[in-house]
Amino acid sequence: MLFCSHVNDNCALDFRYVNAYPVYMYVATIPNRNSPPATLLRESYREDGVVKNRTLSNISHWPPEQVEALRQVLKGNLAPAPRLEEAFDITRSRPHGHVAATLGTMQRLGLPAILDPQASPARARALAMIAQQVLEPGSKLAAARALHPQTSRSSLGELLELGEVDENDLYRAMDWLVPRQPQIESALARRHLSDGTLVLYDVSSTYFEGQHCPLAKYGFSRDERRHNPQIVFGVLSNGEGCPVAVEVFEGNVADPKTVATQITKLRERFQLQRVVLVGDRGMLTEKRLETELRPLEGWDWITALRAPQIQKLVTDRVLQMSLFDERDLAEVRHPDYAGERLILCRNPLLAEERARKRQELITAAEKKLDQIVAATQRQRQPLKGAERISYRVGRALGVTTVAKYFRWEIREGKLRYQRDQQRIDQDAGVDGVYVIRTSVGAERLSAEDAVRTYKRLATIERAFRSLKSVDLNVRPIRHWTPDRVRAHVLICMLAYYVEWHMRRALAPVLFDDEHPGEVKTSPVAPAQRSASALRKAREKKTPEGLPVQSFQDWLGDLATIVKNYVQPRLKSLPAFDVITRPTPSQAYALKLLKVSL
To answer: Which residue in 353, 369, 356, 354 sits closest to 419, CA to CA?
Structure first.
């Protein structure tokens, strides 16, 4: 039998024999005449037939419970080991997986070096705001709380080594970011744009809460917030919809007036000499083309005609429905568009939908007009006065798009109206018809490809939906100074840049189509999803049996990978971090993103 022959203050035991005789250890309490008793660890052994004792250590400074525990161990009364769950305390858990996925993607894209090659606290805070906009968009005050060590809601602040950060630190980082916007956009353009490339451009607007920013003006509200001032912002992207640059304008700037600054940016800042600019019919108007694009050698465009221009083609008998007897598109020429190609398209499904919607709006407008007629004819307190009646008619028809389909007059205090059937038939004759106009020659771009290219503007519309409501929440804007408004929009654009690449990497486990355009149908017909996308939507899992989720659901799923701060209850052991082991589906998602925990 072995017995302990030595113990230090941490009670590390050493066992041995002495002259083939066992050594016995024990705890002795020795009284002191004028002091508290001394507690000694002693050993007893036999030497030359004589029993001897010696003191190994004075353990008087030990707590009584520790002394008693040692006494029981030396007696052989071993206490049961503590349960594992009682051996440790988890003192903090920080959601980590979604942070690792986002920051890992930003590092893979080289975004820190694009912001500034030199590491600095301002760059780290700017990266934090971009990542936070992907993970949990909100105000800068909310972001500061989420990043502060005492109130952190993820491992983001810790991984970026931000330390204690408040909203003023984030505001200063925004001020640091604004002057770097030109070099940031130029770096993205060098990566994603080249001479002869497609450039998609579109604008949107978003509303303000407040009245103090000089950029906030009343204008056409796409958010249906007519009582709020707004800003207008335009996004440039490559042909695949990857954002490259963003520009902020005052809220009352018309869409066509934003084109000139974008052309200057493409030519002077990005040094592009040949570009095919794609914009919608309200953007690349005839005046913009004449003054901004036609004078530029090597610059082409793809856009569409507006309704009055289409009606003129009908009047000139250039657009005839017989052109669509065999195909849903036809290419024509017109002297008003010298040097351009006009591609006539007709979508029967779109025609049916527009006819149905028109009829519903006309019927709804007639109900409102009938109520006004009844108000002018009632016996008690009838509606009187041409001015008051006109005001009511204006309110009834002003918010609709069908006022042009009615003729009305006020005679002898009574309202009379009727449908303008000729105008209705005129518009119905071109239901489902749209016309693509382009300066790109047929040898470079077929009619079918021209239509497909114009439809790529839908990728920017998808970006606006993501920016404004679905993922990143650029609105409402809470900043007052123009530079901070620009910084906020830039941060949101860069966040979408990160999200765009994350979505492409995660496409196999998203409901998104992995191969858009794989199904070869007529470019005029509605886009068809691929067989793999339909299967994912139906089965909600991949062929390997892994779950298919939305992008936001994947962020939430990865957030369940947490970083736990573990403190052993034995105080002599240091605390340590333990990261949750990812599930097979989480591990596959991280593999797709090419990031690690």
So the answer is: 369
- 492 backbone dihedrals φ, ψ, rounded to 5°: -65, -40
Q: Does residue 413 share a domain with residue 361?
A: yes
DSSP string across 272-336 = -SSEEEE--TTTS-HHHIIIIITTSTTEEEEEE--HHHHHHHHHTT-S-GGGGSS-SEEEE--GG
How far apart (Å, rounded) are the C-alpha atoms in residues 79 and 81? 6
Q: Which residues of the chain fall below pLDDT 50?
A: 1-15, 18
235-247 pLDDT, tens per residue?
A: 999 988 899 999 9
* Cα separation, 133 vs 468, whole angstroms: 12
Q: What is the pLDDT of residues 198-219, one digit of tens each?
A: 999 988 888 887 777 888 888 8
Give the DSSP H/E element, type plus range, for residue 489.
helix 482-505
User: Residue 298's closest CA among 435, 195, 432?
Assistant: 195
DSSP three-state, residue 108: helix
Query: pTM, whole model, 2 decimals?
Result: 0.80
Residues 6 or more apart whose CB falls under 8 angstroms from that of 179 comprise: none
Residue of 165, 158, 95, 222 whose CA lies nearest to 557: 95
* Spatial CA neighbour of 197 closest among 343, 340, 300: 300
Do residues 133 and 495 make contact, with C-beta atoms less than 8 angstroms apart? yes
Q: Which sign does the torsion angle of CA 70, 71, 76, 77 carry?
A: negative
- Domain match, 311 and 456 both: yes
Q: Could you give the C-alpha distances from 465 to 205, 470, 503, 537, 589, in angstroms and in order? A: 11, 6, 15, 21, 24
Q: Which of 405, 428, 451 finishes a domain?
A: 428
Phi-psi region of 384 (alpha: psi -120 to 50; beta: other; left: phi over 0): beta
Are 210 and 197 in a shared domain? yes
Could you give the CA distance from residue 111 to residue 105 in angstroms, rounded to a whole number?
Answer: 9
Question: How many Å apart are CA 208 and CA 478, to the nearest integer?
Answer: 7
State the Cα–Cα distance between residues 554 and 262, nearest whole angstrom.
Answer: 35
H or E stretch covering 111: helix 111-115
Domain that holds residue 284: 193-347+432-478
Buried b (16+ CB within 10 A) or exposed e, 409-422: ebeeeebebeeeee
